[in-house]
Amino acid sequence: MARRRLWSTPDLQIQSPSAEWSGTKRQASRKDEHNMQNLPEFRVGEGCDVHRTIADRPLILGGVTVDCDFGLDGHSDADVLLHAIIDAMLGATGQGDIGEWFPNTDAKWKNADSVNLIQHVWNSLISGGWQLQNLDCTICCERPRLGPWKPLIRQRLAEILDVPEDRINVKAKSGEAVGPVGRGEAITAQAVVLLAKSPKNGV
Ligand SMILES: Nc1ccn([C@@H]2O[C@H](COP(=O)(O)O)[C@@H](O)[C@H]2O)c(=O)n1
Ligand SMILES: C[C@@]1(CO)OP(=O)(O)OP(=O)(O)OC[C@H]1O
């Protein structure tokens, strides 16, 4: 009886780079193949942000003003969640990050409403043919408890982006009393988006 090998050499043949196997020629042929199959293009992006807590400022999360005895410090309104989502969108489409679009050295963005910032970015993506498949995000803070606010933030995000609510999920996490979040010194947010673009000649 022939003995089966418990390990095997990969079928892949390692070849030295040739003109055909490298650079733009390879990329172009992959892209053509994708287009020929008339497939939608999908892009995933992630974003994160952190802002310091501060007294005497409103706490704005995802475009919702949350009842709280402190807010977040920043050049803009410091909406940590919208900033993370903006970065996820820019990441998905390979367009840098929020600071490149809205530099915190520019007086134009001082106390800016982040709803305007995200709508500016999102409208530009929509013009480029992108649609939101889904958005998942997490706000990390010790206080306030976000249970009652999560549905409102989800609703507001759907409104801001003009997408059905079921494409959006909002989660909350505490800092387990450790680190800057756990000590209430900062609030952080993370976001992941999946974007889709229909093929040129439609699906
Ligand atoms: N500021 C927060 C933090 C968390 N929650 C909710 O508590 C649950 C447990 O979260 P842990 O981070 O403590 O494991 C979870 O369901 C969170 O949504 C919250 O409401 N507000
Ligand atoms: C939004 C901008 C611009 O006002 O300022 P901040 O509110 O400080 O926010 P941050 O997430 O640190 O970075 C992006 C900035 O360019």
TrEMBL record:
Binds 1 divalent metal cation per subunit. SUPFAM superfamilies: IpsF-like. Residues 42-195 form the 2-C-methyl-D-erythritol 2,4-cyclodiphosphate synthase domain. Its cofactor is a divalent metal cation. 4-CDP-2-C-methyl-D-erythritol 2-phosphate binds at residues 49-51, 75-76, 97-99, 102-106, 183. It is an enzyme of class 4 (lyase). CDD domains: MECDP_synthase. PROSITE patterns: ISPF. Homotrimer. This is 2-C-methyl-D-erythritol 2,4-cyclodiphosphate synthase. The lineage of its organism: Bacteria, Pseudomonadati, Planctomycetota, Planctomycetia, Planctomycetales.
